[in-house]
Amino acid sequence: MPGGVWAGLTSVAMGIRCENCDRDDDDVVSVHRLYVVPEDWDTAGSVTKVDQVERWCFSCRSLYPHEVAEG
Fold this sequence. Notes:
The protein is mostly beta strands and 71 residues long. The chain is built from 1 helix and 5 strands, in the order ββββαβ. The protein has one domain.
């Protein structure tokens, strides 16, 4: 078959690119990344919110700490 198995196929945009994992997804949301340091016996825990807004897919939002950006 001329052109191989993929001849005649066109690529279709799947959605918006996730800025965390770099994959295309239809379910992308604007979030603030959170850095979490768990409490230890001699250290208080902390959460640091990054001011920069990123667009994350469902998979990244289910795995990594974040806060949905307002508006």
